[in-house]
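Minutes, project huddle
Topic: does the predicted pose make sense with phosphoenolpyruvate bound?
PN asked that the exact inputs be recorded in the minutes so nobody has to dig through chat later. Recorded below.
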Amino acid sequence: MVVVMEPGAPESRIEAVIQRLNDEGFGVHRTTGVGQSVLCAVGVKREFDIRLIKVLDSVADVYRVTEPYKFASRSWKHENTTFDIDGVTVGGSEVLVMAGPCSVESEEQMEATAAFVATQGATFLRGGAFKPRSSPYSFQGLGEEGLRYMRAAADRHGLRVITEVMEIGQIDLIDSYTHVFQVGARNMQNFNLLKELGRGDKPVFLKRGPSATIEEWLMAAEYVMSQGNPHVILCERGIRTFETYTRNTLDLSAVPVVKKKSHLPIFVDPSHGTGIRGKVIPMARAAVAAGADGLMIEVHPDPPNAASDGPQSLFLEQFAELMHQVRLIAHALDRTIREPAAAS
Ligand code: PEP
Ligand code: MN
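Predicted holo structure (tokens), as shared on screen:
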């Protein structure tokens, strides 16, 4: 932590700040230039609230130089984190694609989607059985029936399952159907849910809150990891800005920022990130170009009649086009995206 004193600060106040820093357990190095002192406090605990120093008399500013998160940080673990999920490696050279409808609606819908996305190179089937909807009057999901349809369709087509868990009470049920727990944007700071998922071992796909800073998002990952679960995947899904021509603003700069700050794999969801079908393919291309380790894409066999998020869901043939285009980008970066199955 660096404490900058106001120019001309009286010696007594500088000494009071040094005393306070010592009382907090820090070692202090003092540098004095022309009429101004800077104090360098070493041994700062991550949880230390720097405002305690900021409010002291004659302190001009205080800067934290170490991140408040540990397990999620690149300084704690230098190599990229990779892990296996039922035979696929997350965070490696293969860019993974998770695809499926916003909500699980029926057995037929999941079968048609799974059959198609599997042949195009997707490795995960997505779909919500418990839906966090902005309106209590909107479709809330099929619950366990939906989980059953999704898992059965995924198993028939060699896919893994990712689905959202909204509360602690759903963990055991969802655990028996899914390979990955999705924590939705609205729940990014549901700290009790994060801690409970952290006590398990199953991967957690942590979406960025619509108004969360990258630091808050990494702190949410820290909640999971601090309980012992290292299997966290981050997902940028758009943040809320003043822009109205898209549903959210997809913050792709988060990808290189997270790559520098953290060793965790990061995916991008251009479906929620833009909210408009026609914007999904370009932003999926851009996400892979920015270095994303994977994509989450909403795809539906009949988007105009989808129970939720139809306007941002791709038609099946558009999904095939997306896969073709992002594969070209991945190859340009010496990464891979699974090839489509040969037509029989
Ligand atoms: C979803 O994936 O369908 C979803 C609700 O996402 P988010 O939490 O990013 O809004
Ligand atoms: Mn959705």
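Observations noted during the meeting:
- The pocket of phosphoenolpyruvate (ligand 1) is lined by residues 102, 128, 132, 184-186, 207, 237, 272 (CB under 6 Å).
- The CA atoms of residues 71 and 286 lie 29 Å apart.
No decisions taken; revisit at the next huddle.
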